[in-house]
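User: I'm curious whether this sequence folds into something compact or stays loose and floppy. Could you predict its structure so I can see for myself?
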Amino acid sequence: MNAALKNTTVELRRRGVERITNCKPGTTIVCEKGILWLTQPNDRRDYILFAGERFDKVKRGPVLVEAMRDAVVRVI
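Assistant: Here's the prediction. I'll summarize afterward.
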């Protein structure tokens, strides 16, 4: 998925993986349904998002998203 395409929504099945490219500071990743695991290069932390939670990107670079349950992810 290309983060430059704002307001993009993707449905992921459990264990489905999506690489979000072209993420710039200010890009927001929203978990609209399910549970998401997020990781990014050069960040020792991993992030877990539950439905209704969001991740605000502060560094440039890709984000890897895995659905821990069937999920819907939106990039805004």
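Summary: The mean pLDDT is 92. The chain has one domain: 8-75.
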